[in-house]
Design a protein that fits this description.
Blueprint (H helix, E strand, L loop, with lengths): L3 E3 L4 H28 L3 H21 L9 E3 L3 E4 L7 E2 L3 E6 L3 E6 L5 E5 L9 H15 L2 E4 L6
Parallel strand pairs: 5-8
Antiparallel strand pairs: 1-2, 2-3, 3-4, 5-6, 6-7
Helix pairs in contact: 1-2
Keywords: Membrane, Transmembrane, Transmembrane helix
Length: about 150
């Protein structure tokens, strides 16, 4: 089995960052207006920083300098996430996999310790059914118990 990557639709993220750019430009225009009317004030420096930060951060994501979406990767050896705060889980040590709307719960066979992997927000809208099917097929091949809790959480 090849490695499968599940990412969400970045349309919502791009809309968010576009709004962030527009708000940054609005804050900067207010700074110019206040500077003309009141003169230089110490509070303007915080507004300048906030406006420039919003414009630079939003435009860096929209114009491709940063990758805003994380992915869940499923292959023969493990299930992992691109998020550096998430763990990767090896199929050989797992006993049970539960798929919920916001996360994947995994239980180890020998110790019974459970871990979880957060499902990225944008993945919850589009590819969740495909993720469920792939997890189910992989768990059946690896003889791991799979529980789908998506229908119960609607």
């Amino acid at each position: 089995m090849n490695s499968l990557r599940f990412t969400g639709d970045d349309k919502y993220a791009k809309i968010y960052y576009l709004i962030m750019i527009l708000l940054g430009l609005f804050v900067l225009s207010e700074v110019v207006y206040n500077y003309q009317g009141l003169g230089l004030d110490i509070e303007l420096f915080a507004a300048i920083f906030l406006g420039v930060y919003a414009v630079v951060a939003g435009s860096s994501v929209i114009f491709g300098n940063k990758k805003p979406l994380s992915a869940i990767i499923i292959d023969d050896e493990k299930i992992s996430s691109e998020n550096p705060l998430e763990s990767s889980f090896t199929w050989a040590y797992l006993e049970k996999v539960e798929l919920e709307k916001k996360k994947i719960n995994l239980q180890y066979a020998k110790t019974g310790i459970t871990g979880s992997m957060k499902i990225p927000f944008t993945l919850r809208f589009k590819n969740l059914d495909r993720l469920s099917t792939t997890l189910s097929e992989t768990c059946n091949r690896k003889e791991i118990e799979f529980v789908n809790k998506l229908d119960k959480n609607n």
